[in-house]
Amino acid sequence: MRATVVVPVLKSRSRGGQTESASTRTPESRLEEATGLAQAIDLDVVNGSIVPVNEPRPATLLGTGKIEEIKALLDERDSGLVIVDHPLTPVQQRNLEKEWNAKVIDRTGLILEIFGRRASTKEGTLQVDLAHLNYQKGRLVRSWTHLERQRGGGGFMGGPGETQIEADRRLLQDRIIKLERELEQVVRTRQLHRAKRRKVPHPIVALVGYTNAGKSTLFNRITGAGVLAEDMLFATLDPTLRRMKLPHGRTVILSDTVGFISDLPTHLVAAFRATLEEVLEADLILHVRDMSDPDNQAQSSDVMRILGDLGIDEAEAEKRLIEVWNKIDRLEPEVHDTMVQRAAGAANVVAVSAVSGEGVDTLMDEISRRLSGVMTETTIRLPVDKLTLLPWLYDHAIVDGREDNEDGSITLDLRLSETEAAELERRIGNGPKPAKEDWER
């Protein structure tokens, strides 16, 4: 379908009486992003317009002159769909469709459409359907003829005087309740999976970032997984978890989450809360940023705002977050070198290219360092009756040396965190008490 993208740029009055933009983003970057969103669902964008709006109109948002100007463009380009990169009220959407004689969807509707196409798991589909129905419920205000008819008949369903719009709302609400129940079951299943992961306490590392920042490409680079990774907005939607080993042998679980975006619809934030809670459970959060995007600072602010809404404040983020400056391969050589030097001199920052692999080893070392905490060096000799601890040791400790003894016991030189050292002592003490020489520090 041939589509036209319209980006309204609203103005807001400051206290000093000076007019300043209501958005922190440049209109050009907003137009580029909205066009990318449209192209993500295979729309043919034939025109894009930036429209200044001094005083938003309650009925149409835009002024009559701009509406007529866009109408002429639609006729000229034979465009039957208009995407307005701004939330529209149901009345505004209906009036604009009448004025332009074309289908109109706002930013929320466009993102919901993309999510509907990208969802592939049962949970993702349920979450998108629920968000879509909540969005539609508030839009049953169209004055189409069939919505004004009244249904007759007796019984409990659609009694006398019930209009078609009321019946439609009731059917939508019934469907919403059914989806919420199904989603509750999926959420319980996810919570059970989390509980099982806690019993085998592998640290969890979560990837977050603005959509198209390169999270899935980095995920594939680190884990060798085959997650879809394309240069488009919201290429992947459903969260993916993979077990992986760090360079020194420690096992962690890496989680690739849904990409964030500015003005994320509240319906989606609510519907995807169960999925986003994977981030809350993470021991370490990798905030992936596309440093080749001129708007990366504003994108970073949007991500941090959503993390704050989830309950991760600045103090918490400082402890658990590493900034991954991605796509440095796209930068000019001078900018690239400066970026790498800045990252090296900053705390909790690593510059990488998920495509070429540059900096990924440094990132893996930093993950290991952050997850290790205060390391304890230990030498132990495992007797034959304790060899069942070997898999646990290789998963939770860094094995620097191993010697297989003639009596079947094994001597290991280990580095492990204080918590895991205490856990090892507990496990060794569960069976027969080892001889003093079997446990040396």
UniProtKB/TrEMBL annotation:
Region (Disordered): 10-31
Named cofactor requirement(s): Mg(2+)
Residue ranges of domain Hflx-type G in the record: 203-375
Molecular function GO labels: GTP binding; GTPase activity; metal ion binding; ribosome binding
Domain of life: Bacteria
Coiled coil stretches, renumbered: 162-196
Residues engaged in binding Mg(2+): S216, T236
Annotated localization: Cytoplasm
InterPro entries per record: G_HFLX_dom, GTP-bd, GTP-bd_M, GTPase_HflX, GTPase_HflX_N, GTPase_HflX_N_sf, HflX_C, P-loop_NTPase
Function comment: GTPase that associates with the 50S ribosomal subunit and may have a role during protein synthesis or ribosome biogenesis.
UniProt similarity note: Belongs to the TRAFAC class OBG-HflX-like GTPase superfamily. HflX GTPase family.
Ranges of compositional bias, category Polar residues: 15-26
Assembly notes: Monomer. Associates with the 50S ribosomal subunit.
GO cellular component terms attached to this protein's record: cytoplasm
Name by which UniProt lists this protein: GTPase HflX
Source organism of the structure: Rhizobium aethiopicum
Binding residues for GTP: 209-216, 234-238, 256-259, 326-329
Entry-linked PROSITE patterns: G_HFLX
Keywords for this protein: Coiled coil, Cytoplasm, GTP-binding, Magnesium, Metal-binding, Nucleotide-binding
